Request: fold
Amino acid sequence: MHLISAAGASPSLVLQLVVSGVVLGSFYALLGMSVSVIYSTTKVFHFAHAFVYTAAAYVALGTASVLGLPIVLAIVIGLIAAVVLGVTIELVVYRSMRRSGASSLGIFLASLGISIAGPNLIQIIFGPDGRNLPVGNPTLYTVGTVTFTTWDIVTVVVSWVLIGGVLAMRRSRWGLASIAVSANRELSAAVGISPQKIYVYAFAVGSLLIGSAAILFTLNQAATPNMGLQPVLFGFIATFLAGVGNQKTAPLAGFVLGMVVSLSGIWLSQTFQTAVIFGLLFVALIVRPQGIFRKAAV
Amino acid sequence: MERSEKAQATTDRLVASNLVCGYGKHSVLHDVSLTVGAGEIVTILGHNGAGKTTALKALFGLLPLQSGVVIHDGQNITKSSTASRVRGGMSYTSATSAIFRDLTVRQNLELGAFTVRDSKVRAERLARIHDLFPVLKDRGSAVAGRMSGGQQRLLSIGLALMSGAELMLLDEPSLGIAPSLVTELFESIRALSRDAGLSVVLVEQNVGAALPISDRVYYLRAGEILLSESADEARARDDWWELF
Amino acid sequence: MTVSTFISRARRFTAAAAVAALAVGLASCASSDSGTAAACDGDTAINGIFGEGGEAGGQGVTVKVGMLLAMTGSGSSYGEVMSNGAKLAAEQILAACGPDFEIAIGDHESGSVPAAVAAARKLISQDGINVLQTSFGGVSEAIIPLVQQNKILTLQGGGTSPGQIGKDYLWNTRQLFADPSIPGGLAWVAQTYPEATKMAVVGTLENGINAQTKLIPEIWPEVAPGGTVVLNEQHEVGLTDFGQIIAKIQSAEPDVIWIFEQGGDNATFMKALRRAGVTAPVVSSETGGEEVCKLAPEEFDTVIALGENYDVANPNPFNEQFVTEYKDAYGKNPDIFAANYYEEMFVFWELVNRVVADGGDPTSGEQLQAALAADPTFQSVYGGSADEVGTMSIDEETHLPVKPMGAYTIKDCQLTQVATITEVDEGGDPFSGVSK
Amino acid sequence: MEYYADIAIQIMFLMMLALSLNLLVGYTGETSMAQAAFYGIGAYTVGLLTMPVAVAGLEIATSSGVAGGAGWPFWPAVLISILVSAAVASAISIPALSRVRGEFLILMTLAFQLVTTQLMGSLTSITGGTFGLTPIPPMTFFGQSLIKPSQVVIVVGIATVLTFVFCYRLGESPFGRVLKGIREQETAVRAVGKGTVLPKVIVFGVAAGVAGLAGALNASYYQVAAPQSFNLDVSILAIAVVILGGVANPVGTVVAAILLGLLNPVLDALVGAEASAWRGVIYGLALVLVMRYRPQGLVPEHQGPLRFLRRRRRRNAPAVAAAATTRAPRDGAPDATPGAPGAVPSGPAPEVVLKVEGMSKSFGGIKAVSDATFDLTRGQITALVGPNGAGKTTLFNLITNAITPDQGAVTLNGTSITGLSISEIARRGMARSFQDGRLFERLSAIDNVAMAIPDQRAENPFILTVRPLYVKKRERAVRQSALECLQLVGMHADAETLVADLSYGDQKLVAIARLIATGADVLLLDEPTSGVDPSAVEHVIDVISDLRAAGKTICLVEHSVHMVERLADRAVFLDQGRVLAMGSMKELMARQDLKEIYFGA
Reply:
């Protein structure tokens, strides 16, 4: 049992882990933003997000390698598929359940059902093996002892551009409306906002973000049918650590989470990492259920 | 009701007939009919739990009706969504959650005009509300929930006005604010009604403040209209306890 | 993914959907694959090697062979080739007037212990198997009590682990990850990279764990002057983000990296490692696997594989006919897994013959094991020469095979042997077993 | 034969796991994603306890290097496994359940599940790592080692039947009633004098203990305990079984476990290698469809053959004695029920029962209640009146400590109850009702009322298990008392009707009956007639008058001045959180200043 890593905290390791942490943190920030956009607005514990993530990756690599479409086009199709899937789940499943007076627990269980059925369906169609998006190898950059690749840069840039975009959209008509709905649903309806439409909007934006995250992931790694669970869990962790309904701090929480995960590598063997991260979440939720970045309610 | 049905059809901004509604099994309004004319301020009085708030929500479409008809400006809106009622010139200000507490004053007012697409119109309205309630201009970037109760109340009225409503449904605007402010607030409502032809359905417990600005009064008890009379008649009353 | 695999997947999907839609509730007995060759003639290439069959050759005897394989999950490509090899052997044996080996396959879902135990139970109780071929370390360890209690002679050709060594009823035909291969391998590394002192070891919490945590730190300093293990990292199976481990590798600056990765993890790791610009040579205890080649072909070409390797070009007559027939049947060259499960079937045949000759019951696992222990040497597709069939023997104590071991370079997923390694004697010269 | 026995065993393991989870999801309304973790803890515990002791030179050669176990015999090890699982679950549930619910609990139990699975895989020297703990000795039964599925199926079958009976009886017991109450309205359970944290902690422990038993049997049957048998997928499968079957109905759980359990062999035969993926698709979709179209599950809570039998029996049992006004004697004391309805009011007339002094509370700078002082006189009805926002309901909340006051003291019958919890206050003889009723909607009227009857020792699951006959007898008495309380409000004919199926007015009456059942002397009624059909209001007024006649001290918040005038002996006039005047309603109505305050100047 090697709980403590033998590597020790050499400066070059710390630097490299900081750089990995920035990349991982940006990725988690994007996941946090994605989950938060949906959860803070609709209060749906959207576990099926994991399926949307997986579907985006598989549609992209399916169209690229089977239909032979150019990779950029395939990625766009993958993203469209994510949005369509996310919105369809809202319209076909959640909305009708809400209408028939389902509890939030009931909606969560339906969502859980989708998150089980979806990836298994993908496995039946594509098989269980990992599959790569047909993109070339990235260029390697070395600064001092620290290395990173084009994909690392792409991940960081795309993540923050998307996060910035969503935060900027908060000033738009739709953005303002979705803030209003998450702040006070009844009053929003009273000022003429249709919460139903805002929900669809939230699912579209959230799905676009999670789809983008899936594509960023597949640049580097093979897609597998079960790839979705972990990122969505991390998205939820970021959302809950940030404080529910706190869209602005969810990416920050995600980023911190990524940094913590990466830097924990200085002392910790990978085999204990998940246990430690989820253990921390467990404690954090007990100690500060309102979130670490949110002051206790007055 | 004194006025004839025919006259109402042309001059009445809102006609509600035989409303029945409630929450699930809990039936609150049993058979409520009321009318509001253009530029008229109508006050609904009654004890708590009599169904006043429910009546406003029913008029605004926030609660599904079990039966009854609501006609606004000659249009049957019984089945319309709240959003389309807002576009049709109706607004509703709740007694308890009338503002977005976590947003700024400015954002609140912007949201009030959510159905207005023309930015020029929005700017005009904002200017008018700033004239009307200067404090909302001064504290534009303040978080609404951190302002005093009175300021929050003003904001809620401003929010309702931003939509360009011709018919305001106001639920206890005097709740939780100082008596001096109440008078001021009610005066501005009166002024809006007089100058801009605004129709108001007012639910108030503060009879003393509401009556001076009202045209007509309905008394509601246990979900039924007990009595309807002109505000002058109501002011002359000495037996209010009996009606509550 | 190629178009054809996609289409075949899609077909399976529609077919399966149709079947499922038709009837849920009809539990029919599982189909078992069996050799369906026509009447035997006793004059096949196999007869040339193993004799003419007939009554002495076990003709008329039906032996039920269970196979516990990864048919689904990340390792399903292993399951496919393993079953291909075994099925080919069963057909050839039947055609050569040998016994009828009926194959029943159980799925351990690429290493799921509960799935494996359930599948093994089903093979034993429902399919009534007499012998078993198993694969994967963890799941094979988990079914040991079962095969012992039911006296099922079990052969393991996929890769051993410490828990599978010297176990009653379980005999190995591949010594991958087994401790004995480690000293020779390390000695070869020391000889090949004389400058190398710092070694990093990375692996899953799977088969190689013992070698990784105990043997390498012990032996490496002995065989390499000034040798140290600068990094010893383990991770869970199926890890996708190797960023941290690679950062540690970069920081530790090893001269050589030894990995115990399997299947997809191999590819993920190699890709991440090379993309991060780490150029140190990588030595891997894995010499096979289609999945790796599919996912990281370029990166895998930089790996040096250590262990026994199956050589397709081996001119030994047993192997030659195997390769030809295999290609005819499946359209591609066999790999190490196809070969091991193929030749295991011939081990079963040999044992059946011995038991029949002694007048015993050839379906009794107990008697088959006794026959194996009495003389654990068998004809093999490994070794030998153009004139002579190779042999493989299994150690009576450890139940591990003695097969030629080697170091291999990889090009386009094909292995080329660059050195031969034999077991290093205890206390002996660590280099004695290495030859170029 | 062996094959079918094996399938039966697998289904029964799933059944036991789901039955245990149903105690949480169904009865208590708490979704746990960690049930498989406790299943696993049981399995590993039995493995470590029963594996042979390591002897130097004869160590068990496993890859992981687990040296050996404690060499215990099987059944004592099973017992310890149950206890270990239960103890871990209870320990975890104390902080988790008392502070978080809903989505937070889902996320937390999910975290616990993932941590547990990873530790099973990583703590190799204890757990055997991903290879699992093996070989675990087979289970024994009367000294016989059981290896064949056809033998094991008998033991597992017995365990499953016992689990079913245990879960069923627990769910239908007074303890189960408290759990359902927590599910429906946690605050209302506290308001009738019952704690809610302890029952939740206990049920978490009990459910984990049952899962631990299943895990122990699982490990001994498979002779291996490995992380994959106890991972998140298994937890989710168990949730699916509970949801598909129907929550809070063990019969449904059994049906669903059989259906989902049979999917394995059926799909195996149909699609072979892809069976597990197909199973995922089918049960995932089933979950979606059930939640969408039949959220109550295949066999809903109030259905099923056993339930039906039970109800018929019950209907015949406690016939209402027409004039029964005395309540069943409680344990030990012949009749210690304080102020039972119908009892003659005791003591001299004007006696202060409740004293409220200097009560103050501000919310964010706004004084909701400020220095409120008043008292209640025995046998009288006191009304709190005042304009909207005067702080009447807030005062109720402060008196019962539902909201913690900034300042102030409350004295009940001469003893300070300041700072006591609402449930403790209820036990001391003061109970409150809620404006919105807060009834347990998916329970029958009689169950609603029975919940409030104090000192039910049968609510202790331990007593429930060791003294079933006593519990049965006691429960009959409780139901009789509850029926009498219902009779007092004229609702006894609807005793077995689900509250959700009653009219709003009837629901308010049941709420009053529930309040009576607490045996409390002092009743705080929050708007007892609001929303009640005018035709039914008279009945509510009569009931309240009867309560006064029976010696209860009543304080009510009521907005209808009419009602106050008719009912109240005394009124306390509040404005902006201050007590402005006290007296009869007539006196107050005559005061011009109060009129101005009430109606505005």
Summary: The interface with chain A takes residues 60, 62, 81-83, 86-87, 91-94, 97-103, 107, 110-112, 114-115, 159, 163 of chain B (CB under 8 Å). The two ends of chain B are 20 Å apart (CA to CA). Residues 1-10 of chain B have pLDDT under 50 and may be disordered. Strands of chain B lie at 12-23, 26-37, 41-45, 67-72, 75-76, 90-93, 167-171, 199-203, 216-221, 224-230.
